[in-house]
Amino acid sequence: xxxxxxxxxxxxxxxxxxxxxxxxxxxxxxxxxxxxxxxxxxxxxxxxxxxxxxxxxxxxxxxxxxxxxxxxxxxxxxxxxxxxxxxxxxxxxxxxxxxxxxxxxxxxxxxxxxxxxxxxxxxxxxxxxxxxxxxxxxxxxxxxxxxxxxxxxxxxxxxxxxxxxxxxxxxxxxxxxxxxxxxxxxxxxxxxxxxxxxxxxxxxxxxxxxxxxxxxxxxxxxxxxxxxxxxxxxxxxxxxxxxxxxxxxxxxxxxxxxxxxxxxxxxxxxxxxxxxxxxxxxxxxxxxxxxxxxxxxxxxxxxxxxxxxxxxxxxxxxxxxxxxxxxxxxxxxxxxxxxxxxxxxxxxxxxxxxxxxxxxxxxxxxxxxxxxxxxxxxxxxxxxxxxxxxxxxxxxxxxxxxxxxxxxxxxxxxxxxxxxxxxxxxxxxxxxxxxxxxxxxxxxxxxxxxxxxxxxxxxxxxxxxxxxxxxxxxxxxxxxxxxxxxxxxxxxxxxxxxxxxxxxxxxxxxxxxxxxxxxxxxxxxxxxxxxxxxxx
Length: 536
Description:
mainly alpha; Arc Repressor Mutant, subunit A; 5 domains; three-stranded antiparallel beta sheet; 61% helix
């Protein structure tokens, strides 16, 4: 774990859970496994605050626990999961993917699970139905059965899975919640992860009504007590987001996009069909998808593409012969089966990412040298000048610049044991895996800088933001009570023109920073996937 990863985890924990949880989580990241009392002593926090912080981290799967150094009889030790904390960068992408695949209902299901960490199916259905009902007009309400169907679809496609069960000795109950927080690990049986219980849930979503003198709080308390007494049939069965399934989807989308840009749309649709046929049956760490025959691919292709069998054979041959090697042929030369080379595809995507970074930072000529070294492996300076067709002085400057940035390595091969410079070959080379690790750390640093800048912009304009929120709340209240247009306009004029202009500029800057975070995270995902596949 590097300093940039710890810094980014610290920023994410502070933004999502506050400074206390950040302090506990970061201390565990730096110190490793600690028991409860040692953690409270070293962080100078009360035992109660440390317990609540650990409950939050456990609830969201960002912390694990187990027997300590003294064995089963000793105190339980806790450790945080750095990679799970970094997944918070991808929360908007998870939610957007669920929305694009399953609509607004799927979006809210994933959003609730990400926000709460773990929930029962009945709680998710009721909460999502209430939220959808709140956004509906003309007194309509969302039926529980519609949300249940969307939840079941997410489970069937493995985007949502059950939390693994633990024994009675491994339960951690939060002091401010009635739910039991369990340790996140892989369940014993893969089929049990996606087994939907029989939930006895009928009715429709309820619309929240505003009232005065604390009536809303009393009604909410009564509703919570009634819900606790109700039995829905899924008590004790909690569900969580299956991040690995989302990552498989992101990886497949990256491969499909690369094929579309390299060849054409029809080729990408053929690769999409091959990936869709094996997305549930192929393990996450597999080097390639399961083998498929041309007949199976032809039958699975959507009829709207109007791809005949001879055309499909031509496209498959084109994909197999392409230098990118995204698709490979297995079996004999007569018939054969086709697979998607997942590891090879990730290596090519990471390579293209490295080349684009070099081109953006150092120009097209440096990128030409970088691509040349990737292809030829080892070259002397004179060979680089000749092959790249760049003058000697410029090539030397570019090579030394890339060398100083650790993007290019220099390997010495002596002719004699004395390592005399005149009798030594100096070969330039590019090691893709260490270079990808270096770029990944730079991406972590860039995202951390973006988050810090966003927090700084928000803090500097805190007064204007609070004033804008108060006025928006007043306007919403007046509109609910049917106020006149003149009264609404008078409230809107409480924000002056310069303040409004400053708020617009702030929103523009915040949107650009958020967009930049998402774009850098796409690069992080590609590099992490390549590094994991290369070191597996």
